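W.,

You were right to be curious about this one. When I first looked at the sequence I had no strong expectations either way, so I just let the prediction run and decided to look at it fresh. Below is the sequence, 900 residues in total, followed by the output.
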Amino acid sequence: MVLIAAILIFAFSSNDSRIDYNTQVKPIFNKKCIACHGGVRRKARFSLLFRSEALANTESGKPAIIPGKPNESELIRRVTHNDPEERMPYKHDPLSDKEIDILRKWIKQGAQWGDHWAYVPVKETAAPEINDEWVKNDIDKFILEKLNEKDLTPSKEAEKAVLLRRVSLDLIGTLPSQKLAQEFLQSNDPKAYEKLVDSLLASPQYGERWTAVWLDLARYADTKGYEKDGGRNIWKYRDWLIKAFNEDKPYDQFLTEQIAGDLLPNPTDAQYIATAFHRNSMANDEGGTDNEEFRNAANLDRVNTTWEALMGTTFGCVQCHSHPYDPFHHEEYYNFLAFFNNNRDEDVPDEYPVLREFNDSMHVEIEKLTQWLKENTNDSSANAIRQFIRTWQPAINFTRADNIRVKTNTKENNEYALFFRKNSLGRINQVKLDNSDQLIFRYMTWKPGGILKITSDNPDGPVLKTLNVKQTKGWEILALDIPLQYGTKDIYLTYNNPSEKDTLNGIIMFNWFYFTRQFPGRGLPGYENAKKSYWNLLTANVPGTPIMMDNPQAWQRKTNVFERGNWLVKGAEVSPKVPNAFKEAMPANAPANRLGLTMWMTDKKNPLVSRTLINRLWEQLFGTGIVETLEDMGTQGIPPTHQELLDYLSWSLMNDYKWSIKRTLKEIVMSATYRQDSKLTDELKQKDLYNKYYARGPRLRLSSEQLRDQHLNIAGVLSPKMYGPSVMPWQPDGIWQSPYNGARWSSSKGEEQYRRALYTYWKRSSPYPSMIAFDGAQRNICAARRIRTNTPLQALTTLNDSAYMDIARHFAYRMEKDGGNDLRQKISKGYEWMLFKTMPEAKLNLFVNLYNKALSEFKNDKEKTCEMIGLMNDHNNAETAAMVVVANAMLNLDEIVTKN
């Protein structure tokens, strides 16, 4: 009996006392201790951020935690002390008896740390063994298991019309075509819903819908930001996204091309364009700003965006100090920054490097020239020349001109260009000239008679070239043959213009300089034609898209820790590395550049990338992620409601679906979980108000893009046109204030004003108002999650905004033209176009009464009629004006502005 009792006591005490660090101990530390004893502050030299720090000696010379010995551990003595001056947390409420008991048992068991669930590589997770007729796929098994635990029952499947609208808004961002809708609604095929889903996934509109989501992550805008907020030509990146989503580019490749497409072997134009993902960072063209400061700011933004958008982690605070809650040291931030620090972006106004946008015939010419070079010289020379034609890189930007010595104070070096007046002298410091016998530069001068002398070593050193500078018509490119140069030298530019008497007038500007070899192949067949083709392509006046490119090896920068995050205070030099906590995911053969970084990110051992994408897809479909904090899956993020399901889908994404987003989305929308009716019962209101356990379908307000696109679709004016530059749908004058360049909002005409919302011109300092009213992101920085709001401004926008009134007018015209023969038919038909089902009789009567009331008022007031129609045309009559009132009210129905 004694033996049995002892066994029972041991068994119960063992089961009861095992403490889990992540779920029991760390929450206490994070909430009660880490503010004073963590990454930012380490009072008494005691930190609870890492186990090695927690067990190290404190200011007293002894550790505060002694594994296995809670009674000898200073931590336990302090949290149980009766003196408020000694007790911890200091000047806060004491720990509860339960919390103290947890810490005591944890120390007694060895004070073992634990890995946070999101930082452990994704493992294959089996679906629960559940047999239920409600289940349609494995997703439902995870959901049903949790519902059973919570004593909840799933809802029935939503009616066909609701499901049609829901899945269309989710997959293509707007309503389906009438043909597709009728095929689904009238079909009795058991696979009708699956066929609908396949059709939507194959639609070109699918790419537009998911690009709209990605633009927030990429902080996409048509302007550069900051006070000047000048325009940026980067819309080709948006086109690349649409095409990538539509072709279902595997997500690992999708990320690789955006972060390091330029580093792939012989990158295509599309792969260069993809890297504009990290050229969407803001740039500062203000006079007097420091280009190096904002070059660094852009790189810091690239680091933070990579972590927040693609890995669901708050990494930005590590810029200034070690992370207070997660396993990231201060130095590791700068190890990661080193992956980006050698890119060619130097915050110059022309946004170099850019991919120059040639037409089709020019592309053919480039390929012919490249082929000639490969056949007559070598691949290395051919590739270098091809790259220089396409990008004007690697050129020395005007910002490299430093230590200017001035004659008669007649030279400026501002943020726009290297700017010379009369009798000016400038220096380009430490130019690597190995085997260079040609200088190519881009310049502009508006005065004839100038003389430019180029010397090496010093202003009176060996003359490389003396040139009579002719007046230009805007920017021009000039090539100068120079004596063969070796080594690293300072290059001096001396400019004088005897014909200019006023020494205060600017005369010449330089944009970039390129020291290279003369065009190869002299004397070979076809040389003259090839050289002419090269020069025509190099000097062609074509637009360009900002892209990522790295410095050549000779120009590599050092990366240092910024002490306390201050770029002016350089600490230790560091090299490109990923945080130690995730180093196992770095392949052994990965290069120490952005391409190697993508190999680490997309390795299956990386715990964050697949989880972050699955969480984002789930949030877009259900309104809330499995982890609600999309931007933070770390220890301070909200814990997942269904961690096993998240891992199941993350594993499937990488292994079963081969990184296919379309296959993943199909799996989710085919589930019974997704197809449920969204009605909120009294029971659900009490047990699961926010639908965290998914006993009903999603019900939430449409995003700003979905709302606008849906309304345009209902009105029959949504333009199917895809791709191209951004457009400017109507907005009143005065919203834009552009003090530097006088830029104005020029409203688009014709179908351009009715294109999908993602094509709307996005000015960072003044985003499109109705988009912002419905929680659109400003896009100065990455926005991993839009927080949904509910304000009176939203109703005022859809009821009164002129752009939405215009949509209501077109909807009214459509009902009058195609709705039927009488008023009731017209209104009923409009309702069917919106919701794909018959209008309830009671609701129809309300709208008929609204029409009659409005009609009686408009018949007696021609001015109000004209105001409602908006202009004098064939529609300017009381009957149409009354229908506009009805259309406007219908477009503001609760079931229209929400996804049910």
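Here's what jumped out at me. The radius of gyration is 33 Å. And, maybe more interesting for your project: Residues 1-15 have pLDDT under 50 and may be disordered.

Coffee later to discuss?

I.
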